[in-house]
Design a protein that fits this description.
Strand order of the largest sheet: 1-2-4-3-5-6-7-8
Helix content: 25-40%
Order of helices and strands: EEEHEHEHEHHHHHHEHEHH
Strand content: 15-25%
Largest sheet: 8 strands, mixed
Radius of gyration: 18 Å
Distance between the termini: 22 Å
Structural class: alpha/beta
Number of helices: 12
């Protein structure tokens, strides 16, 4: 895949890969991972689409300088600019976890108007699962703003997010999931600048139930696909079923025997559903 860079007007850069020809389809990955989350499904998609795989800011090869705010609103602004330049108006776009939250905020603030939208497991309007673990992660990450702790915590993060944890994200314990996590955290140890940037993000990222989403769902008048895993404890199916009833043009599809890493558990099924919906 070819590596390219998008430069936002505020100086932030977004690294992205692309493969194939045809209508552009962008896939936004989940928090803490990278564009490699989608690699198992790319080959099946690139026959029909120009598949565009960005690294979100703070991830992979994209921007991580602490000079930026790293609020959800900032992420939405940067990624909307990226989509406009690389995909054009009315794009085909999909997001998972944090990637989906960024897309929804960009649409809510009228920065982005996809022609078709695919939302993979994310919290939607619900409070996040495992709230205590998330709170502990937020507290530890925010501590990186303290001089001296930034470098220490960067080493601690690598020790916590070991490659073996990738197996827990796959319902089928795909060994390749370990390599995904290894790649995502390869440059974390000793990177105090990255630790400070993550501290900013952790402080500002919205927490708790996002009940304002109930007002957004009826405004999503483009075709929307809720593409959900049936074995992902982080994002139960119930929230997607509740959202479906409020979407003017929505549909729900479930990938059986898949967990958080759907592209690793069932790459063919994921590509099939995306291709069928996006045309």
């Amino acid at each position: 895949m070819r590596l390219r860079l998008y430069h936002h007007p505020d100086g932030a850069r977004v690294a992205y890969r692309e493969l194939g020809s045809g209508p552009p389809l962008a896939l936004l990955h989940s928090a803490l991972l990278s564009h490699k989350e989608w690699e198992p499904a790319v080959e099946q998609l690139s026959d029909r689409f120009r598949v565009v795989l960005p690294d979100l800011p703070l991830h992979g090869d994209s921007e991580n300088s602490p000079r930026h705010p790293y609020t959800l609103d900032w992420f939405a602004e940067v990624m909307s600019g990226f989509v406009s330049e690389t995909l054009g108006p009315r794009p085909l776009i999909a997001g998972h976890d944090a990637g989906a939250e960024i897309l929804l905020h960009a649409i809510l603030t009228n920065r982005l108007t996809p022609s078709r939208l695919v939302l993979m497991p994310n919290r939607l309007h619900s409070p996040p699962a495992h709230a205590r673990l998330r709170a502990a992660w937020r507290l530890a990450t925010c501590a990186a703003a303290v001089p001296g702790l930034d470098r220490l915590l960067s080493y601690g993060t690598r020790a916590v997010f070991t490659p073996e944890r990738g197996l827990l994200l796959s319902a089928r314990a795909d060994p390749a999931a370990s390599d995904l996590v290894r790649h995502a955290f390869a440059d974390v140890s000793g990177n105090y600048s990255l630790a400070r940037s993550w501290a900013k993000c952790a402080r500002s990222w919205p927490r708790g139930a996002q009940t304002h989403m109930f007002d957004l769902y009826p405004r999503l008048d483009m075709p929307v696909l809720l593409l959900w895993a049936d074995q992902d404890p982080l994002y139960p199916l119930a929230a997607a079923e509740e959202a479906l009833g409020l979407l003017p043009n929505g549909q729900l599809r479930i990938l059986r025997s898949t967990g958080f890493l759907m592209a690793y558990d069932d790459p063919v099924g994921l590509a099939r559903e995306l291709a069928a919906f996006c045309g």
